[in-house]
């Protein structure tokens, strides 16, 4: 049912075949932005905003996520000239998002965080938030991958290509994370 | 098959995963336009000045070394000439006062012998033996000067190496440490 040995021991060619060829687009876009094309950055934003959104959703309160996404892309635009390898834009912006989430928690220690319950929300939304909280309670390794898959709707190969993780790692994180989530949700395996 | 659905959404759909996707889909990212301030300058490609600086430093080092070498060489050439003139004159004086006709005949004979052997370039033995004492003092001087020059060259090399490493560090530090460039705020 879960991860098998042959899944983990996939050849690099097979792994590469599963990953979408997005790096060429990234390289072209990053170079275009560095040559003065601001629209190129808008394309990068469209491509990577769901990834940044998912990473933040796994770490910070939902209400803060949208503003932080904008801040992160603004910061990335300013610092894009420091990116040496244009093909690693995805892992780079993912790292910025993770660092930003850490900074958020460091700064918000002194302030009182208003919970989603206090703000008020409808019942359909509250179920989603409950599950989100369950995912957030999982180990950090699994929660990001699960949110990218279940919330943002990305496939395993897409997650691997955009975060810079290997396909095997993403596969393991997905399966183990899903197993834990099923246990916590009370789902019975194999039914 | 169900595991394929979790991985890449192919194969037989897993109803539990589909249910989770449906519920959590409400939290999905909603596309919003990126608001880049108009006054924000477009980032420019960072120029890598390291090769140019390295070439400039190498040329500078080569020039410095050549200058030092020339200085040492000119000093060492001028001093032996001065030193070799005075002993030669003194030997001439000695010759004029001390040497006898017999001695001169012997010298002539020896020179002839040497020429016959094909060593015409060799100086007469007595003069050479007299130079030995002055040449040893010269060798000491030369050695001291050479040591001094060597120290200067080593110092110049050390300075240039320090400068090169400093430039290299400055060039490497911001983007090599990938964690730093990801820091926000």
- What structural class do helix, strand and pairing data of chain A support? mainly alpha
Give the termini separation of chain B: 45 Å
Strand content of chain A: under 5%
Subunit organisation of the chains: heterodimer
Class of secondary structure makeup of chain B: mainly alpha
Integer average pLDDT of chain A = 82
The pair of chains with the biggest contact is: A-B, 66 and 39 residues
Detailed description of the structure:
The complex is a heterodimer of chains A (191) and B (185). With 191 residues, chain A is an all-alpha fold. Helix content of chain A is 71%, strand content 0%. Chain B contains 6 helices and no strands. In chain B, α3 (50-98) runs antiparallel to α5 (125-176). The two termini of chain B are 45 Å apart. Mean pLDDT of chain B is 74; it is low at 177-185. At the A-B interface, α4, α5, α6, α8 and α9 of A face α1, α2 and α6 of B.
Topology, element by element:
The complex is a heterodimer of chains A (191) and B (185).
Chain A: H1 5-8, H2 12-18, H3 23-34, H4 38-57, H5 62-79, H6 89-107, H7 116-119, H8 123-136, H9 140-150, H10 156-163, H11 167-185
Chain B: H1 2-8, H2 15-24, H3 50-98, H4 101-117, H5 125-176, H6 178-181
Fill in the keyword field for this structure.
heterodimer; A: 191 residues; mainly alpha; 11 helices; 0% strand; disordered N terminus; B: 185 residues; 6 helices; rod-shaped
Outline of this structure?
The complex is a heterodimer of chains A (191) and B (185). Chain A is mainly alpha-helical and 191 residues long. Chain A has eleven helices and no strands.
């Amino acid at each position: 049912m879960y991860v098998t040995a042959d899944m983990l021991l996939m050849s690099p060619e097979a792994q590469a075949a599963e990953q979408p060829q997005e790096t060429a687009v990234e390289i072209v876009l990053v170079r275009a932005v560095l040559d003065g094309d601001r629209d190129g950055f808008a394309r990068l934003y469209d491509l990577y905003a769901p990834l940044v959104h998912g990473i933040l959703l796994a770490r910070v309160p939902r209400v803060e996520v949208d503003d932080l996404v904008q801040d992160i892309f603004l910061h990335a635009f300013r610092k894009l000239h420091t990116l040496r390898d244009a093909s690693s834009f995805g892992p780079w912006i993912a790292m910025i998002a993770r660092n930003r989430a850490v900074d958020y928690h460091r700064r918000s220690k002194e302030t009182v965080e208003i919970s989603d319950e206090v703000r008020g929300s409808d019942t359909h939304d509250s179920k989603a938030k409950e599950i989100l909280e369950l995912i957030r309670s999982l180990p950090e390794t699994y929660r990001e991958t699960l949110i990218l898959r279940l919330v943002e709707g990305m496939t395993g190969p897409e997650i691997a290509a955009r975060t810079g993780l290997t396909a095997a790692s993403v596969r393991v994180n997905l399966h183990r994370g899903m197993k834990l989530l099923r246990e916590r949700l009370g789902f019975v395996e194999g039914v | 098959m169900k595991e394929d659905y979790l991985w890449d959404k192919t194969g037989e759909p897993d109803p539990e995963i589909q249910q989770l996707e449906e519920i959590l889909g409400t939290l999905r990212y909603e596309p919003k336009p990126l608001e880049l301030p108009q006054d924000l300058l477009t980032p420019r490609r960072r120029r890598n000045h390291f090769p140019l600086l390295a070439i400039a430093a190498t040329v500078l080092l080569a020039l410095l070394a050549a200058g030092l070498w020339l200085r040492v060489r000119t000093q060492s050439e001028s001093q032996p000439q001065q030193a070799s003139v005075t002993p030669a004159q003194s030997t001439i004086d000695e010759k004029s006062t001390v040497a006898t006709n017999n001695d001169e005949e012997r010298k002539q004979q020896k020179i002839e012998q040497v020429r016959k052997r094909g060593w015409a370039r060799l100086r007469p033995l007595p003069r050479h033996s007299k130079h030995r004492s002055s040449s040893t003092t010269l060798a000491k001087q030369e050695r001291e000067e050479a040591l001094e020059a060597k120290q200067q060259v080593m110092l110049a090399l050390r300075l240039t190496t320090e400068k090169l490493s400093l430039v290299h560090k400055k060039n490497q530090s911001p983007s090599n440490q990938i964690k730093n460039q990801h820091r926000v705020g």
